[in-house]
Q: What sequence folds into this?
């Protein structure tokens, strides 16, 4: 098998590139180096056709596309993208300590050059080819060869034999999804912004009588007067810009004591969270929730819309919380507007993987749920193009099914698949209301503290601890599962002495669904990390199966259909209406098959929805 380490140099970023100046390939086994310059760059496609695997840094995101754009060539072989594998192995990889300040990120080839001890040559002249450019390209290949071997060493810690090739394939599909993009309703986006702006104005009007004034020092004026005794021209302009017309009278009639200082008297600004929090605390606010640091210490109160704002006589707290929520939704839509391409679409970009192996989104990210404030309106922004429809397929109760598979509790699994899981959880935890069960269950899975869990029943940490204890007593196999995971995690975790004379454990790992190491910083997060990891890997395989089967179906990408977004446990596709149900069934089948392929004991399923926008 012929494997090469590859790199090319061009004259710009993907949107503006117009020429490939040179390319270098190094045979990983024979160590032969082949260089392509302007004289023979036309022979590059024929050479690449002899290669079974290309090892390259950001080949999927750049080099592969440039080859297609400039030479009309699409590489057909296997791809090993070292930037993808770097992100997969260590999502939170830090920059090397000896690396100088640079815009290059921790997964960049520049950063890796410092790690492997071979720095990238400096080069900035990209318009015309020269020997220095070829040297830079050749050095990048030598560096990336060392990176490849270093990554191979990292993969010896855990079983990455399935994860690495799957992830490389996955990011090739992500690249096609990003290129396709999701159509948006531009007039409706502007309408939403206008509506949210009006909401902000109303809230500001309601809050104004409740907001006190603050005084701000805007700086000392060292020379307010000219030598001739007049007022400094800059000072005059400052007064005039603020609409202060009687400044001369003020100067003449008042004695100045101390430095001449610009002073701003204004009301507290709802846009400044710190000011609002300080005011509320001054008025007697007893926050229901607090932000915490990595050690669980309180840092600042949460301005949450669900906080009753006990201790505050006015409704300022609720107004401020609502204002922040409105501002967030408005900023989200304004951010989306900036991403709209000339074709009226927003690219759904995947930038890497999180610790759990879930994908990291850019662009179409942090979209609120339909049942949250303005969630429906924001999802209606994402539409199908004219003559097309949208098909969305969700994995049905994915994480709960993963939990069933790990627990091995047949009775609990029956409730998940055929019964009422929230009623079952209500009974296990001894909750009075079914409505409390869903909040409690997902809080429990996500590692919520005793105080947070206790707040569900109007209590505190004591009640929360009792609820958890009773829940685990009602589901002994869940308690056993958590103990097994903790034991595995603690067996390799780092530890340090705590204030009580015992040990605090951190940065341990457990085995992920496909054998990869799943590093978890804190013990309380073990269960949710494991469940999200299982969901992420199953859905990644489901996407690959769906993509393959859709290609084999005879439908044409870009004409009959195109995947617009992969969002955790759902896959969204734009297609011709006549193919909608067929495509939905293919994706649903892929979700089900991915579960059995990965030997997940509890069967999975998918829910198909068809409509003209994401909300439908």
A:
């Amino acid at each position: 098998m012929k494997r090469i380490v590859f790199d090319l140099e061009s004259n710009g970023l993907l949107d503006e590139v117009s020429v490939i100046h040179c390319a270098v390939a190094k045979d990983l086994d024979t160590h032969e180096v082949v260089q392509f310059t302007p004289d023979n760059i036309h022979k590059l496609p024929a050479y690449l056709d002899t290669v079974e695997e290309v090892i390259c840094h950001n080949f999927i995101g750049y080099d592969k596309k440039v080859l297609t754009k400039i030479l009309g060539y699409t590489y057909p072989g296997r791809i090993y993208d070292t930037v993808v594998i770097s992100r997969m192995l260590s999502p939170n990889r830090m920059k090397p300590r000896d690396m100088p300040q640079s815009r290059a990120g921790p997964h960049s080839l520049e950063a890796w050059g410092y790690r492997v001890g071979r720095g990238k040559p400096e080069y900035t002249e990209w318009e015309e080819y020269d020997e220095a450019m070829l040297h830079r390209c050749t050095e990048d290949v030598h560096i990336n060869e060392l990176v490849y071997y270093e990554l191979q060493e990292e993969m010896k810690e855990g079983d990455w034999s399935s994860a690495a090739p799957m992830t490389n394939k996955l990011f090739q599909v992500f690249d096609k999804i990003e290129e396709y993009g999701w159509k948006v309703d531009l007039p409706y986006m502007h309408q939403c912004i206008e509506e949210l702006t009006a909401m902000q104005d109303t809230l500001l009007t309601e809050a104004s009588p409740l907001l006190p004034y603050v005084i701000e020092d805007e700086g000392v004026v060292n020379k307010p007067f000219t030598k001739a005794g007049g007022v400094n021209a800059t000072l005059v302009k400052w007064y005039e810009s603020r609409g202060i017309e009687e400044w001369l009278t003020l100067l003449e009639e008042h004695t100045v004591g101390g430095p001449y200082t610009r002073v701003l008297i204004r009301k507290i600004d709802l846009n400044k969270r710190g000011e609002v929090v300080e005011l509320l605390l001054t008025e007697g606010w007893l926050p229901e929730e607090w932000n915490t640091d990595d050690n669980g210490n309180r840092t600042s109160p949460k301005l949450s819309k669900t906080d009753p704002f006990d201790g505050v006589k006015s409704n300022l707290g609720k107004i401020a919380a609502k204002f922040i929520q409105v501002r967030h939704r408005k900023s989200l839509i304004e951010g989306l507007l900036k991403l709209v391409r000339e074709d009226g679409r927003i690219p759904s970009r995947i930038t890497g993987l999180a610790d759990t192996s879930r994908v990291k989104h850019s662009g179409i990210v942090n979209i609120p749920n339909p049942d949250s404030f303005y969630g429906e309106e924001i999802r209606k922004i994402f539409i199908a193009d004219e003559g097309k429809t949208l098909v969305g397929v969700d994995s049905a109760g994915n994480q709960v099914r993963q939990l069933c598979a790990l627990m091995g509790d047949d009775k609990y699994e029956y409730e998940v698949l055929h019964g009422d899981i929230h009623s079952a959880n209500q009974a296990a935890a001894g909750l009075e209301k079914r409505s409390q069960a869903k909040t409690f269950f997902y809080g429990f899975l996500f590692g919520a503290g005793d105080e947070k869990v206790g707040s569900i029943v109007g209590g505190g940490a004591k009640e929360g601890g009792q609820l958890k204890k009773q829940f685990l007593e009602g589901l002994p196999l869940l308690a056993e599962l958590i103990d097994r995971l903790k034991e595995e995690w603690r067996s390799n975790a780092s530890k340090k002495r705590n204030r009580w004379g015992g040990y605090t454990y951190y940065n341990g790992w457990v085995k992920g669904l496909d054998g990869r190491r799943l590093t978890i910083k804190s013990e309380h997060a073990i269960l949710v990390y494991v469940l999200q990891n299982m969901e992420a890997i199953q859905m990644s395989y489901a996407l690959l199966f769906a993509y393959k089967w859709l290609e084999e179906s005879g439908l044409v990408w870009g004409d009959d259909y195109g995947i617009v977004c992969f969002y955790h446990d759902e896959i969204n596709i734009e297609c011709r209406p006549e193919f909608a149900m067929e495509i939905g069934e293919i994706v649903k089948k892929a979700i089900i098959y991915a579960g059995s392929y990965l030997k997940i004991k509890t069967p999975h399923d998918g829910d198909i929805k068809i409509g003209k926008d994401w909300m439908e």
